[in-house]
Amino acid sequence: MGIDLLPSYIRENYEVHEWKHACAILQADFPNEWIDLLELLSTFKLCKSWITEGGGRKSKVSEEIDSFLYARGWVEKKFDTSIKVDDVIMKSPTHKVDCYKNGIAIEIEWNNKDPFFDRDLNNFRLLFDLRTISVGIIITRCDHLQKIFDQLDRGKSYGASTTHMSKLLPRIKGGSGSGCPILVFGITESLYNENC
After folding, report:
1. Cα–Cα distance between 86 and 83 in angstroms, integer?
2. CATH of domain 2-193
């Protein structure tokens, strides 16, 4: 089953990878969050203006995804975590999750430095081990979008050491997410829209 649970439109327009039955868990145990995710991915378009206009603190891609999910009750979430051994409490800080709802965590990595993937996967691992999340999801870009960036004279802004699929997959395959079920979506050129 696995990614076959996703609608064909999503399988055809995103590069999708799954670990530890993430799709089955989402569909069976988190149907509302599953529907939110499917609706997001089914309506998302990569606008040319988001690439050609310089970014600020947050990319237009991240803003678009965040706003879609925030309107459906997802939130940016920071967890106050610690470990207690006997009477000793040790802080165990985690990083904020971009979008969180009911035990599902989504990170959007459009054009950050690639060590952000290490941070995200370590966060997923820790939060899963603490029974705070059940599935971690990362939305990033596919490598082949580089040719579009180059055509738009933005290639240098999207360098080889930034977040894209070929920087993510070896980290997950190497066990960085540990036991956490993970689902990854790569934005492909078929989602690119020159008219917005």
Report:
1. 10
2. 3.40.91.20
